[in-house]
């Protein structure tokens, strides 16, 4: 008797974790990825092959039990986020930024050593080489009471036993056609479900020396009034790579790359000093420009709106089609922990 195969849409953290969990159960899976790379909203960049800059998912903490367990299982180490020294908070352009220190006893955040992509690479290494198919964007899913047919934009027609989507729900209902159509209540909720990372604009600056640490600064900056809204030290603990990484105001998406960099440097120069202008590398990612991650909303959506909605726990098409992904997790939706929890939950349907 032929063993059923689970087709997973999306080779991000949730999709690859689900494939990993299914393989441990002896269940075959195939992961279809629209992009030319795996990782989804994990996008680690490297400067001169020395250090990593995260343009996507970055941090975890002690409440992220599934993620920390998975890191331990895959023998991946992580390090506490550096926060020692003076931090800055801009509340008004009319005044100097407020200075403050982050207490040592505050619950720590962690970064994965070598970059978050280490987790993606480890999951891929544990899968069969043929189980991930890149450049396969799903265009349509048909169900005829006996089987599911997946059609991709490359022209493939795939007969599937089970299908799991790990796409952000709004992206799923906005870019994939269904026959028969999905329930109207599900579609309405999906269209109003916030996409994790969708509005984020991330940037990174790499330096030869950690001038901010030499001045006694932590590298942490918060602002309610400027382009850089959050920023943190992004250096390695072995003192071989020095960087700052942060988030920009969503309005910066209308600027050019050069304009964004200039506004970042001008703002940080006032706070940290002239050395800000001496970056050796600049990285950025405007996530709303990623068509395989983000689809525009039909109406105003609040952060985390409908994330973890119970409607996503109900299988469709006679228990052959499942909606998973970080946005569907009941706990920590919209984070790496949520992506992994969603994968664990979905894996329980298959034995």
Short description:
This protein is an alpha/beta fold. It is 22% helix and 28% strand.
Q: Can you characterise this structure?
A:
- The protein is of the alpha/beta class.
- It folds into two domains: 1-41 and 118-195 and 292-351, 3-Layer(bba) Sandwich (FAD/NAD(P)-binding domain); 43-115 and 199-289, Polyamine Oxidase, Chain A, domain 2, CATH 3.90.660.10.
- It has helices at residues 13-24, 65-73, 117-125, 169-175, 184-191, 211-214, 257-272, 336-347; strands at residues 5-9, 28-32, 44-47, 51-54, 59-61, 78-80, 86-90, 98-101, 109-112, 132-133, 138-143, 148-152, 157-160, 162-165, 177-179, 201-207, 217-223, 228-233, 242-248, 281-286, 321-323.
- It has a seven-stranded mixed β-sheet with strand order 8-7-17-18-19-16-20.
- Strand 17 and strand 18 (228-233) form a beta hairpin.
- Helix 1 runs parallel beside helix 3 (117-125).
- The mean pLDDT is 96.
């Amino acid at each position: 008797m032929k063993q059923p195969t689970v087709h997973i849409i999306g080779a991000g953290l949730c999709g690859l974790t689900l494939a990993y969990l299914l393989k441990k159960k002896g269940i075959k899976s195939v992961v279809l990825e629209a992009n030319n790379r795996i990782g989804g909203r994990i996008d680690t960049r490297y400067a001169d092959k020395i250090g990593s800059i995260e343009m996507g998912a970055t941090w975890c903490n002690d409440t992220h039990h599934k993620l920390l367990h998975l890191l331990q299982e895959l023998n991946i180490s992580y390090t506490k986020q550096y926060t020692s020294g003076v931090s800055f908070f801009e509340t008004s352009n009319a005044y100097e930024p407020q200075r403050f220190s982050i207490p040592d006893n505050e619950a720590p955040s962690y970064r994965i050593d070598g970059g978050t992509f280490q987790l993606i690479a480890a999951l891929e290494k544990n899968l069969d080489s043929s189980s991930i198919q890149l450049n396969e964007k799903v265009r349509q899913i048909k169900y005829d009471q006996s089987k599911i047919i997946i059609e991709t934009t490359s022209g493939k027609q795939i007969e599937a036993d089970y299908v799991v989507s790990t796409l952000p729900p709004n992206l799923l209902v906005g870019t994939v056609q269904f026959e028969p159509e999905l329930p109207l209540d599900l579609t309405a909720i999906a269209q109003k479900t916030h996409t994790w990372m969708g509005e984020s604009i991330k940037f990174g600056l790499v330096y030869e020396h950690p001038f901010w640490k030499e001045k006694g600064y932590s590298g942490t900056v918060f602002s309610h009034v400027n382009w850089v809204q959050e920023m943190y030290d992004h250096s390695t603990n072995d003192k071989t790579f020095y960087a700052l990484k942060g988030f920009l105001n969503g309005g910066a998406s209308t600027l050019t790359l050069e304009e964004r960099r200039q506004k970042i440097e001008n703002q940080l120069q006032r706070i940290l000093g002239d050395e800000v202008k001496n970056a050796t590398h600049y990285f950025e990612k405007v996530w709303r420009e990623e068509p395989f991650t983000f689809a525009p909303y039909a109406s105003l959506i609040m952060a985390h709106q409908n994330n973890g909605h119970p409607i996503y726990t109900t299988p469709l098409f006679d228990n052959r089609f499942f909606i998973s992904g970080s946005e569907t997790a009941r706990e920590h939706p919209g984070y790496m922990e949520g992506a992994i929890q969603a994968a664990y939950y979905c894996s329980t349907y298959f034995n």
